[in-house]
Amino acid sequence: MSKWTVAKETVAALSENASAHGADAAGMLEALISTAIGALAAEKDAAYVKNFIDYEVSSINVQHVDMQRLT
Asked: What is the pTM of this model?
């Protein structure tokens, strides 16, 4: 199983279980993103994390296909 498949399954599980934790899907995803950013910062330096986030945010409205992330 690829890292992207694991990540997608994690996101789906969070969304499905949100109400059981008194949250909505968006709230669970916000918690995941915040936690993941902190974990990434513990693994990489701040400049790397900022560049990664900037790239992802700039890609939100761009129509492109990233084959690696579709697997």
From this structure: 0.76
